[in-house]
Each structure stands twice: as structure tokens, then as C-alpha cells.
Amino acid sequence: MAGSSFLGKIDLSKRMDTGEFEKEMAPLYTRLGILQRQLWDRRVPIIIVVEGWNASGITTVISELIQYLDPRGFVLHSIGSPKDEERARPLLWRFWTRTPARGRMAIFARSWYSRSLAEQVSGIDWLSQIQRSISEINTFERQLSDDGAVIIKFFLHISKEEQKKRLGEREKDALTSWMITQGDWDFHNHYDDYLSIIEEYLEKTDTPHAPWTVVGATDSAYTRFKVYSVVIRQLERRCRDLDGRQRDRKPQNLKKPRRTKVVRNAGPPELYSRPEYESALRAYQDRVRDIQYWLYKRMIPLIIVYEGWDAAGKGGNIMRLVHSMNPRGYDVVPISRPDETEANHHYLWRFYRRFPPVGHITIFDRSWYGRVLVERVEGYCANHEWKRAYQEINEMEHSYIEQGGGLVKFWLEISRDEQHRRFMARQNDALKEWKMTDEDWRNRGKWREYEEAVDEMLARTSTVDAPWTVIESDDKYYARLKALRTVIEYGTQLLR
Description:
- By secondary structure, this protein is of the alpha/beta class.
- The chain folds into two domains: 225 residues, 3-Layer(aba) Sandwich (Rossmann fold); 221 residues, Rossmann fold (3-Layer(aba) Sandwich).
- The chain contains 20 helices and ten strands.
- A five-stranded parallel sheet has the order 2-3-1-4-5, with helices on both faces.
- The longest helix is centred in the middle third of the chain and has 25 residues.
- The radius of gyration is 26 Å and the shape is elongated.
- About 1% of the residues have low confidence.
């Protein structure tokens, strides 16, 4: 303990007698309920994380915390070993999908920290895995905070001796003995080894937007009072911010990704006759089927993103791509305006939920890039929100790829004249007129605004990890074959 810094300075002797506890807590119960309703009305999401050593009192603290909360306004997540669906995806996927809607509260009895510790401290590369996890956690929490969430984190700290005492008492008690496993004792026996790792997590994830409160948890009454007091203080601070005093947050020096240059061209560099096209199409579709099979066998997930101008041919392109695929191994996800539930979460939430499990392919017909395209141009989000999105998107894609996923991004480019020709053809075709809406014509009227948004999107999100591939789409034959060829080349590289 003497060598530790973050935990070593915590006073483990603090106590609170029953009379003092009851006197101090009485007004806090009412106050917490009031704050919950106020922030519910103001649509502020709240995340409370309670971490700590085994037997440190996490359950007791949370039981006290939720006594006077409106149960309609919070959900409790008790985090244990991942389920099969969760194990098939990146670590933070299961927590992104559990983030609260605006105005709601999510309480985590253990969280991404415990799971990162349990799942990353293994293998010969565990040190670099931990550093990567810390970086991803900081990004995750910063993005939620930037979107308005209050993040309150607690670590309940007890000594090795206190932990041994509590484990022994629980093991002897018929009512609690079932809670103690060999794993608890194994963890206890490695207390000193884990101490330095936990220190690393706490120190490097103690940030202005998601600070840690370490609580000396030797005495249950003091622990519960401390947690309650901090939660109320943090929620009151947010209410004051909303009443006029904005959060004083210094701009962060975020790491800029290495980018690749993208050139938009609508005209194809070569043309195919119909026989040439059909011959190449069959051959490419067979290769794509083989790629899908080997991705499944190697348990590699793949995301394919289609963005492009209206009438650029995304639907037809996707149909040719999946023609020979096993339908049980892919999903096509068409993206439209977010529904009420989706709009009440961070804008990336609905996309994380559709990320593929290992060995699966997910094709997004439009995607998270709507944030910096239609939402930007049409004013569906504030300027600071879409400007912030470039960094958030790059971080999300980098994290996904670094954890073993594949990502292909297509921008389908057509000329304005070709778009007009296709619009008119659709409008005059009884089988295709359903594709045309007033919104398509309105978007065409904002061609220059969209063009500016597209150029900035390609420039700022075509990274070395996740470059954009521009598909010259004035000619549909060429566009379909290029997309197929790109997937084949990328898939082959991914399988090496």
C-alpha cells in the first residue's frame, strides 16, 4: 500500500455512527428524488458507476442509492461475465447499448472497468491491451459527456485484511455463503498484484468529464453517506450549469488520425459492354461468397458502409453485392431518420447496436455519416454537434478496426446531370416512382450545400485505418463491379 499513490492516500479508518448517519441522510433522500425529476425534465442522461474490490459493499451502496429514486426513471445494470452475444463483439459494445436515454439514469454495479480488467489481463500482450482499453474507455466517456451525460464514478476501497475478513464471514453465513466462489478467493490472493493495475486504471481514467471518487469503504454507514453526498453534489452542479453557468471545460488536444486524400469523380475510367459486365459480375459474386465464408471461419466481423448522392445506385449496388452470399451471414441495415427512442440517445447508439458479431457482415445503407451530411445541411443538429462528430466517428472506426473488425466505406458519386436524368426516369416509371419523394427534389436544390458537406466529410474521415473508396457511378455497370472488386481486395487483405 505504501507504494501506491491513488489508493494509498485514502483514509480507510473513517466511520459514522448510526445516529449521525440517520440524521445526515434524512434530507438527502428527498433531495436526490427532486434532482432526479429535475434532470429528467431537462433530458439529461445520468450514468453512475460503482466499482470496487470484491466484498467492498457495492450491492449495499446501490441498494441505499435507489431507495428513493423513481423506478420509472432509472435502470440498474449488474455486470458479470459476458453472454455469447456480447463475447462476439468488442468490449464496449455491451455498454454502448446500455447507455441511458436523455432524462434517464443508468446505474452500473460494476462496469466496463471490471470487465476490461477481467478480459484484458491475460496473454502475453496484456500490458498493451490494458493501455488500449484505457484509451477506449476515456474516449467512450468523453463522447457521452460531450453529448450531455453526467458521469459519476465510485471505487470502493478496502484493505486486503478487511477483504479477507469479509469473505470469511460471508462464507460462514448460510445466507451469504452461496455468494462466495473460488474466484473471489483467487482474486483476494492476488490482491497485491491487482493493486497496481487498478491504480493504473484509476489514475489514467480520472478525467475532468468523468472523475473518480475513491471511497474508503471499511465502514458501511460512512460509505453509503459519502456516495449519496457525491451523487447529489454532482447533480446539483449540473442543474446550476443548466441554469446559466456553463461547464468550464478546456478544449482537449485530441489526437488527429492520419488521413488519405480522396478525389470525387462521377465518370468511370472505363466502360463495360453488357456481356463483359455479366461475366465479371458472376465471377466477382462467387469470390465475394468465398470471402464471406472465410470471414465466418476466421471469426472476423465486417462492416460495409454505403453513402452517396440520391439516385446514385446504392440499392442496386447492394443487391449485386449480396447476390451469392449466404443470407444467414449478413444483414442489410437501411438507415432513415432516428425514431423517438434513437433520438433520445447519443447519435452513435443506434449504430453500435447494429454492429455485427464475429464472422458476420453488416451492410449499412447510409450510416452514422448522416450526422455530418443531412443533419448538418438540414439543421437537425447544432453546429458544435456535427463539428464534433468527425472526431467521434474516426475514434469509433479506429477502435472497431483495432479490435479485429473490418470496415469498407463507399461514396457513390454521380454528376448533377445524371442525377436529374435518373430522377425523371424514376418519376415516369410506375415500378420506380415510389422511390421518388419531395425530399429528394428538395435535397437536389441544396446540391452546393451538400457538396460542401461531402467534401469536408471525405477530407476529415478518410483515414489510413478506414479510407473512403469513391465509386464513379454515372455508369452502373462500372460502379457495381468496382464495389465488388473493392470488397474482394479488402477481404483478401483482411484474411492474410
